[in-house]
Prior knowledge:
Rossmann fold; 2 domains; six-stranded mixed β-sheet; 15 strands; elongated; disordered C terminus
Amino acid sequence: xxSLLQPNTRNHEPNQNSTTLSSTxxxxxxxxxxxxxxxxxxxxxxxxxxxxxxxxxDLWVTVTNRKVGTKSILEGVTxxxxxxxxxxxxxxxxxxxxxxxxxxxxRLGSNTRQxxxxxxxxxxxxxxxxxxxxxxxxxTLMTTLTVREAVYYSAQLQLPDSMSKSEKKERAEITIxxxxxxxxxxxxxxxxxxxGISGGxxxxxxxxxxxxxxxxxLFLDEPTSGLDSAASYYVMSRIxxxxxxxxIRRTIIASIHQPSSEVFQxxxxxxxxxxxxxxxxxxxxxxxxxxxxxxFPCPTLQSPPxxxxxxxxxxxxxxxxxxxxxxxxxxxxxxxxxxSYKSSEIYQHVGRQVAxxxxxxxxxxxxxxxxxxxxxxxxxxxxxxxxxMYRDLGYYWLRLAIYVALAIGLATVFYDVGFSYGSIQARGxxxxxxxxxxxFMTIGGFPSFVEDMKVFERERLNGHYGxxxxxxxxxxxxxPYLLVISLIPGAITYYLPGLHKGAEHFLYFASxxxxxxxxxxxxxxxxxxxxxxxxxxxxxxxxxxxxxxLGGGFFRYPNDLPKPFWRYPLYQIAFHKYAYQGLFKxxxxxxxxxxxxxxxxxxxxxxxxxxxxxxxxxxxxxxxxLAILLGMxxxxxxxxxxxxxxxxxxxxxxxxxxxxxxxxxxxxxxxxSTTPLHGEIIGDIRKQ
Length: 688
């Protein structure tokens, strides 16, 4: 905390020596080659011809919400990133690190407004596929896959069809070795309930996946978050030395909270933020001198990054005991450092560098070879999803065990139901339980659906594949498992109670059960795309199914349902209606039962029971009901696809609208806060 520091009060106010020292040191830093921790001499000169130069000037970002109104996250930030260098964005929590990174990568949320200018090689252009990659803070990976499988599947999705499988496999293995994961190639990633690789190794797997296309621009959001100092250094040193492996002079920008001294030495440039303002931007090696020349020297035994953050962190100032002699409020310290930075030669040099980069004719970024074709994407996603479902016990196998247990319970309760008059109600109750509660249990897979959506969102934002390919792959891969669940518990439920004999009747029964389960899965996937929270998603899905169940026509017969809402439209759109009708027709048609009351014919036909007791619509056959169910499956999957695509399409529109409203005296950046790949690949994928 700044209030605990005992600054050199003689040098606390910005003075002439501060500018002079910065100017002298900066001149030496620029002219003389320095020994880079990335393994080669780096001469910090301008301009380099290859690689990606990224500049941002007078960048403002504000966020709007109902509680606090409009709040500035970034305030007039200016800086640059050059090829072959690692730029670290540092600062206390809430200072705007991730916001700046997202703004540069084009990932700001739709509730933000952005102004200023961001240029790539001196031009306003969008980041094309393969030229940039973004590694998120959370390692969202398929925990059931091995390291080799995770990287190889991604290689098959991202690399073009013109590359052979052997070439893609070789690229994957080389990338794994680049990040030092060769000893963990055949180890599963692991997750909840399953031991796997360490946190640092997971972070390196995430990086492996994103650098398969050999991007020139790499963004990393908190790459050392949750790692110990040793793991943090290993991860960052591998990142800093990537150019030694592939020879690409890569521009690397990483937001990082509190690096160790060893990690700090890997940085070429440092952007230090506090409350959205730039406290320092320049060579990382000069940051300590900058603080010292302004009256805040780093103690001998303290890490420079720790010293910087303690000096400008005001989050806990109120909790620190006050009254120490010479203590200075943190806000005053931040204002002093910000003012000193803007009057320093370092700040002037940053402005000149930005101007020089903007003047150079760097040319537009060319889109690298496109990702795999649509058919390849579908096949790879289907295969990967199938493997994940097979290895994840909670995805289908646990549900299969529960279904078998429920089927045995049903079979014993309704064992040898017979053909008495009372069996009419018993058969109807059994059909209702199958169509309602057995299919209701499908919501148990919702946590797995949410994890699938998290992986999809990460991969989709970086343009690994199209939305349509994901929906198709997810749908096709689940079919074999749902067929097994339909046939095994279905056979127990059907034959032990002695339902309508005949293979055709059983297969129809299993088909309806299959259609209902895949339909509910489609519904829950749709919910997962809207409500990515386990508890809220399960509640939402259960509520929707509960309403459909009530209006399905069993708990209250169709003719007795209140017409507003329940009869029209709920009864007509509830899949339970068609499941009930199909199962009831399949069971009762062709059977006869004794009449309980005296007089009249001795028996009741199944058709009479369907019309009179159950009030079924008999104008069409049971196969029409099955066809409607299958059609609803397709409709729900299309709805799932439509929601995902709508979210993708609406986000840039909202962002552009918000930015346009914010455009007053400043020029709004042309790269909207959508995905960095949005402009290039979304249009291509829509065609798929």
